Amino acid sequence: MSHHPSSGKRRLKDLLAQPDNRTCADCGTPDPKWASANIGVFICLKCCGIHRSLGTHISKVLSVTLDEWSEEEVDSMIEVGGNGSANSIYEAYIPQGVSKPGPDASHEVRAKFIRAKYESQEFLKPSLRILSSSSKQPSLQASLSKKIMDSFGHSGSSENSEGMVEFIGMLKAKVLRGANLAVRDMLSSDPYVVLTLGHQKAQTSVVKSNLNPVWNEELMLSVPQNYGVIKLQVFDHDTFSADDIMGEAEIDIQSMITSATAFGDPEMFGNMQIGKWLKSGDNALLEDSTVNIVDGKVKQFVSLKLQNVESGEMYLELEWIPLDH
Question: Where is the C2 domain positioned along the sequence (predicted)?
Answer without folding.
Answer: 151-266
